[in-house]
User: What shape does this take?
Amino acid sequence: MTIARTLDDACAALAEHPQARLLAGGTDLMVGVNRGQVGLDHVVVLDRVDELRAWHRTGDDLLLGAGLTYADLGRGDLPGLLPALAQAARTVGSPQIRNAGTLGGNLATASPAGDTLPVLAALDATVLLRSATGSRELPLAGFVTGVKQNALEPDELIEAVRVPVLDGPQEFLKVGTRNAMVISVVSLALVVDRGGRGVRVGLGSVAPVPLRAAEAEAHLADHVGWDDGSPPAPDAVDRFVELVAGAARPIDDHRGSADYRRHAVGVLARRALHRAFPGGDR
Amino acid sequence: MTDTRVEAGTRPPRLGESAPRPDGTPKVAGSFAFSSDLWHDRMLWGGTLRSPHPSARIRSIDIGPAVALAGVHAVLTAADVPGSPTYGLEHSDQPVLASDVVRYEGEPVAVVAADHPATVRRALEAIVVDYEPTDPLVDPLQAEAADPIHPDGNLIRRIHLRHGDQGAVGEVQVEGTYEVGMQDQAFLGPESGLAVPAEDGGVDLFVATQWLHVDRDQVAACLGLEPERVRLTLAGVGGAFGAREDLSLHVHLCLLALHTGRPVKMVYSREESFHGHVHRHPARMWYRHHADRDGRLVRVEARLVLDGGAYASSSSAVIANATCFAAGPYRVPSADIDGAVVRTNNPPCGAMRGFGAVQTCFAHEAQMDRLADALGMDPVELRRRNVLATGDRLVTGQVIVGTAPVAEVLDACAEHPSAAALAADPMSLPGGAGRTADAGHVRRGEAVALGFKNLLFSEGFDDSSAAVCRIEDGVATVTCACAEVGQGFVTLAQQIAREVLGVSEVLLAPAETATVGSAGSTSASRQTWMSGGAVQAACEEVRHRLLRRVAESYGVDVDELVLADDRVVSLGGDFEADLTAVTTVPVEAEVEFHHAPTQPLDEDGQGDAHVSFAFAAHRAIVDVDPDLGLVKVVELTTSQDVGRVLNPLQAVGQLEGGAAQGVGLAVMEEVQVQDGRIRNASFTDYLIPTALDMPPVEVAALIEQPEPGAPFGAKGIGEPPSISSTAAVVAAIRHATGLDLERAPVRPADIALAEARP
Assistant: This one.
């Protein structure tokens, strides 16, 4: 076991032990360990690396350390800068889990139901990876490659996530079969970029990876009154909802049916849009 | 509302006062020793190899590779079971370890003892079992016609209850087919125990269970030992709710301990626990209710099929309850109710809080609402016109001789004022933390449901509990094998001893099989009555003997003497002695307490099969988001027939906890089984209510009409809270949505996609 104090420590340990498991909050890792599915030949402990638990603003971008916990995402200035991310983080587990689990862990696990992933998709986030030999930056879609699959090399760790600070409302909505502490059946993030005159929509739990509803976004861009903030007309909203639902590629599983997910993602799209542009059709 | 405050004072609580649990603070603080905390310095770890198939023949088992691993001390299969190869609560039909066939996914096939849990895991992986999978029988409706999957056949029990005029027809009839899914007891402490081999060739087993003596008898039979050489001691129980009434790891642990000569500990994982205990029976229920134009019930017809899963467990008693109480707490002059419980390759089902009455309550209450709708009558008024009272006859022909304040229970609940306002914050609306709804998306519904069941064991079972009371040096010690599983016997036994003996200090000895006779099961809402009764009787006998001895020693009239405030005093005031002084020589008594005998049901399901009944009502107010099918239970009001409240704090705890399990079954709790396999064997996916799902439980009334024959007049209170709560919540969702919703739990798609249809 290596208890890393700096990023360099952690990367050096990974270079030396390419089979090592990274331990940040442990909220996913330990489930696998307890089930006997994950061996722990070597562990690199990250939770004492201060650099990972910080965030910085650089121009119009935010750099979010991979070690920020879900609880951290809801504290201080972050909810004002990234409201949808804070909302998504709030839906994760219980307070104990939110105090332990991290943004980097959510990315690395790359579950189709990862709660922050639709928000990061909508924000066009990029993922900064680091190893002893260098750094690279991948778009989210390049990082999450499949169900619980990511692009990390054995000697790499996630250093940070880069997201833009946008002018405009943001919403995250998540359907679960319980009112808290629940894996998402379907989730949706909607962020408005007034500067770029666009609305971006990320979808969770409706495909192997987080999706963007690109057609729906393109359609909506033409129907929002960008100069006066007026909402799109009812038929434009209906079309938006249809396009969002059409973008989903859900499956049947024990948490919900594909039909329900396709239906629900449309309902979430309509409601998120209404919250972002109140006054129109809800 | 009952006052549940605990007064800070020096005098320990007596009967009728709130007694805080001695294990309450340790459990909250994390210092309570559960059975999973058991430890022995020389102990080995045990583990279980389980079938991955719901149905398969076992061609061969090769334990060689596992035995060869360093650190492995034993690998045992069916061939190593020295006594009875099977066990069971009512029918000995379940193999200790499967030998030739496996009948459900997760059935134990082999057990291992090793020096470390990781070694156990490797050893289990190293065992080679050659299975020949066969088509599982998974549809309970096909079970009777299918080839038998067990030598005992696929029909576990059928009761065809016929009561009254079989030609009776009502002017108004309503019909429905209802379904209840498989609920898990979801206790927090998974199965765990420690077996220690003894010098006499026997074994001491420390285990979390509900009925020590019946466990002992089954374990001893499987081990081929005399019962005296198998000694069970209750370990810290993390909840039970029926799931610990059957054996789980008991025999396995003892086999491993006796084979290795070392103490062996075993703890199930949560996933394993889902496979390791019985669940609530899924039910399919067809009903037709007949009534006259005034809403008086004329006849109830029903066909009930319960899925018992692979082994019988307590299915025979569950189907009796489902059938006997199928018509609800109403006067029904004519009935034809056919109840069957069948065997399938699904997970075994057995006891769970409410025990058969939960499923039929869901159906009969839906029928009562449907009937009210057909009659254009208020559903509470319809119930009021039909409720049972003392002197009425059940559909089993039994006349209720005890208390039956059903009208009082119903009215207290239905008329209780509601404080439920519509929330503005999305967190408090359906969808909760997911923030999916705004107030405009929500529809509110409200409904009342009524339910009942029997207390204690039925159908002629010779039911008893034994207790020993000993008083020495002014301290009373109560010994009883009653399993404390959270119901509160630990406080109650002390309260009773204080009440009877006037003594402040009461010790409760550990519950074990070696020192006292059977207390019976902690189930069927029976321990307050049965073990409470045994403690009362034992304490009374001690009082009697003590006072007689004092009277003889001091030459006073025994009829003049009373025990109060740790003293023996004469009513005339001319004699007084300190209790400590007169008990330097101890006084002890052991008593076996029986309830009034019951009769078996005859071939028409008729007979005085039950001792007593308890009734409860729930009113649910729900907010529903119809577009997403999400539900928030806003308010739950209840009233219950309790006989007499002995510990108000504990009573309200039972009402709250039972209602929470009812809310769970209404909107989220289901063991999802597909092709015989459990799809959600984890607390990630088997959901139970959180604080955002469970509303405050408003107790409208605890109806106190002392029950004749019950110690202190107190009825059992543990099960009724979980019976009508599910029915009330689903009825309220129906009210909000206008949908039929004939299945519990209600799933989001049942609402959202139903609405999407034209």
User: Anything to note?
Assistant: The interface with chain A takes residues 121, 269, 271, 430-438, 440-441, 627-630, 632, 667-668, 672, 679-680, 684-685, 687, 689-693, 747-749, 752-753, 756 of chain B (CB under 8 Å). The mean pLDDT of chain B is 96. Chain B is about 25% helix and 25% strand. The longest helix of chain B spans residues 527-554.
